[in-house]
Every structure is written in C-alpha cells, then in structure tokens.
Amino acid sequence: MSDTEQTVYDTVCELLQRYNREGRELRPETDLNAELNIDSVAAMDLIMEIEDKFDIDIPINLVGDLRTVKDLVATVRSQQEGA
Predict the structure, then answer these.
(1) Distance from chain centroid for Cα 39
(2) What gap in Å lies between CA 71 and CA 63, rounded to an integer?
(3) CA dihedral in degrees (23, 4, 39, 49; nearest 10)?
(4) CA 24 to CA 68: how far, in whole Å?
(5) What Å distances lie between residue 48 and 43, 51, 60, CA to CA?
(6) Where does the Carrier domain lie (predicted)?
(7) What is the DSSP code string of 55-79?
C-alpha cells in the first residue's frame, strides 16, 4: 500500500469509527453492512462525509458497489485521480 493509499485508508477508518458501535477491528476486508451494520441511510451519510473530507464527488451509481473498507478506499483513490 502506497503512502497515499495508507493515508486514505486511515482517514476512511477514522470516519467509520462512529459506525463501529461494537468496536470491531477495521480491516480492508471489513464488510460495511454485515460487520458494521451500515444501512442505506448511514451509507449516504458516510459517503457525504467522505466527499467533504476528500473534496471529491462519488457518483451515486458507485455507492451500491461499496461493500468493504477496501472498496471505499479504492473509490476515493479513483475519484482523486479523476478516473
């Protein structure tokens, strides 16, 4: 993982902490719905927080594909790179 990816990962994990009510260890493969119980409303709140934090826009059509912490990080990186 590059320094930039690590920074994004750390920031995403920081933002996820308020949804981590059971205090689970966050890993790249942590399932947002199954392990953190992030429903569609919470997911939209999280996406807005991520967009604000990183000054990016995540297209709504990508939100449904975000299953893990790794997916979130990859999407942030992709949007930062303008893909």
Answers:
(1) 13
(2) 10
(3) 100
(4) 14
(5) 9, 5, 11
(6) 2-80
(7) T----HHHHTT--BHHHHHHHHHHH
Please tell me the distance from the alpha carbon of residue 32 to that of residue 69, in angstroms, as a whole number.
Answer: 7
Tokens of 77: 């990186």
Rounded to whole angstroms, how far apart are CA atoms 50 and 15? 8
Q: Would the pTM of this model clear 0.85, i.e. be above it?
A: yes
Homologous superfamily of 3-80: ACP-like (1.10.1200.10)
First to last CA, the chain: 19
Q: How many beta carbons lie within 10 A of that of residue 53, not counting itself?
A: 14
